[in-house]
Amino acid sequence: MSPNTEQFVLIPGRTSTQGTTLNEGKSTAGYQQETGTLLMAENDMTRVGLAEGQHVRLTSAQGSVEVPCRKGRKGELPDGVLFIAYGPTSSVLMGGDTHGTGMPDSKGLDVTLEPLDAVTEHVAEKKAKRGKTDAAGTEGEPITTTVENATCTFCGCVCDDMVLTVENDHITKAKNACILGKAWFLNHDADETQPTAVVEGRPASLEQGAARAAEILAAARYPIMYGLSDTTCEAQRVALAIADRVGACVDTTTSVCHGPSGMAFQGVGETTCSLGEVKNRADLVIFWGSNPADSHPRHFTRYSLMPKGRFVPRGRKDRTVVLVDVRKTKSAAAADIFVPIKPRKDFETLWALRAMVNGVRLDAGPLEEETGISMEVFEDLVQRMKSCKFGVLFFGMGLTMTRGKHLNAEAALTLARDLNQYTRFTAKPMRGHGNVTGADNVVSWTTGYPFGVSLGRGYPRFNPGEFTTVDTLTRREADAAIIIAADPASNFPDPAREYLKTIPSIVLDPKPSMTARQATVRFTTCTYGINTAGTVYRMDDVPIPLRPAFDSPFPSDQTVLEAIEANLAGIAAEPTRAAV
Ligand code: SF4
User: Fold this and answer.
1) Which atom of ligand 1 is nearest to the CA of 174?
2) Ligand 1 centroid to 460 CA: how many Å?
3) Residue nearest to ligand 1 atom 4, measured at CA
4) I need a labelling partner for 119 at 20 to 30 A (CA). Which of 329, 507, 518, 549 fits?
5) CA angle, 294 as apex, 52 and 170 as ends, to 5°?
6) Residue-wise DSSP of 276-340
């Protein structure tokens, strides 16, 4: 190791720019710059002797990357903590071991940082200053329509009050959408140069693609199905029928975000409520390891902070808002109280809160040393939680993705349960993808479990860490994959990504993602919510209908999956599949 290296804790996470550039495309300079730039505390940069834009080498137990570094916003990052937006760079540093949970550690990574000599110019930044691309020219007057009460499916808020202006086959305005929602609606024009299907590198029809996909799945001894969170419940239902028919392991993107919450619900249950109840009743709102200002921008205004409700008639003035996090994110500006917690000490902090809520006396010194939080702050928090009329704790991936995972989520859920001895208190996960909650629901109502389910023996078995996709790929067990609306080739740990390249895969995606480009059979599908109707679930398990804006030349996920299922019905089932 070089004498100049220093140890840091790296916290990858979401940013709003990552979300908007994601919709423009992962190959754009904007996305690559956002996900390939390291943020550091100013003190750390000065101490290490780094200049703005200077490259550093980050090395974890898994891999190494070279990235330019920049100062974080003032006060955002404590000393010793680094931040990078989720993306291909952060994935290189993640390991494939999920510790029996299905989810690799993707936050709180131990890394060494080594300064590199050159201050490299931001080439990507220059590229990002590109002009806006005009929409495809259209002969004559454009036909303009308006779609009222359309639904945004970019994040788990699933806002259903969009007013879309559509000119020919292009959305030009998305009234009421946040910055992420606008990027979602304005960047989903169909690329008509793409074929409907590509089979082994050659353009094909839907029928040819479906026939080849069915052959691959029928011949596999250990097929896996992954994704499902960015499609309709109707498509998810057909996907589950295929999985049942071929005895696949079914897993959704839940396993790499709120999988630990799903495990915790099964372990300790949940006290829950709808976002409507939060809006109308909550007078204490705690965000723990979540940063809605970047990841769910309208959560504050629609549900949790600002709206006036029946029992909180003055809206924000009737609420106390607390943010618990390892870094002072943008959301901290909206909170009354910011509680900075030591990285990877969520479980200890929640367990101490449980003890205090239940009347156990704790020693102030060791408590502060362990968690970074003083006894005064603990006591104030406990008093507020016990005396509020309706409290809610929204927990994010800062809690579920750090070490402890489902135990962290269990601690949050049991704290909420304990508080119901005194008042009404609930705990809810901040779900990310538009219909990841729908995926949990459809997989649960079909198999009894939310994700990481094997149907290989003809009946469902749930075992995160065994049947979850990172594990089945890292252990090199799967021999075929069907991936629906997800891009594991760009966000899984390296061992899983490398193995995925070696097995036949079928991919359904509106965009030519990295996973789609390496697929044996790839289908270009239309975008749910923009081109197709259907149902999605909001993060609080409330189903919401979709109102499409314009027709696409490409089939829906549901249509493609129905075609594959029809082909499978014509292929005799392999009698020996039950062995896996
Ligand atoms: S908060 Fe989420 S669902 Fe609502 S408009 Fe923004 S991205 Fe879309």
Assistant:
1) 5
2) 34
3) 159
4) 329
5) 105
6) HHHHHH-SEEEEES--HHHHSTTHIIIIISS---SS-TTGGGG-EEEEEESS--GGGGG-SEEEE
Using left for φ > 0, alpha for ψ between -120 and 50, and beta otherwise, residue 448 falls in: left
Of ligand 1's listed atoms, the one at least distance from the Cα of 162 is: 5
Integer Rg of the chain from CA: 24
Residue 552 token pair: 């696409």
**Per-residue pLDDT tens for 310-332?**
999 999 999 999 999 999 999 99
pTM of the model as a whole? 0.84
For ligand 1, atom 2, name the residue with the nearest CA: 155
Mapping DSSP onto H, E and C, the string for 230-277 reads: CCCHHHHHHHHHHHHHHCCEEEEHHHHCCHHHHHHHHHHCCCCCCHHH
Place of tokens 């908007």: 20
Q: What is the band of 560 on the pLDDT scale with cuts at 50, 70, 90?
A: very high
What CA–CA distance (Å, rounded) separates 26 from 220?
A: 31
Q: How far is the CA of 17 from the centre of ligand 1 (A)?
A: 14
Dihedral over alpha carbons 310, 288, 252, 500 (to 10 degrees): 150
Separation in Å, CA 250 to CA 42, 103, 105, 151, 217: 45, 15, 21, 27, 13
The per-residue pLDDT for range 110-157, each reduced to its tens digit, is 899 999 875 544 434 433 443 333 344 445 667 889 999 999 999 999
Interacting residues of 87 by C-beta distance below 8 A, sequence separation 6+? 18, 26, 31, 32, 34, 35, 36, 490, 491
Ligand 1 test: best mutation among 14, 16, 155, most atoms within 8 Å of CB? 155
Nearest CA residue ID for atom 8, ligand 1: 181
| 112 contacts: CB under 8 Å, gap ≥ 6 | 1, 5, 6, 7, 8, 58, 59
**Which residue type, as a one-letter code, is found at position 324?**
V
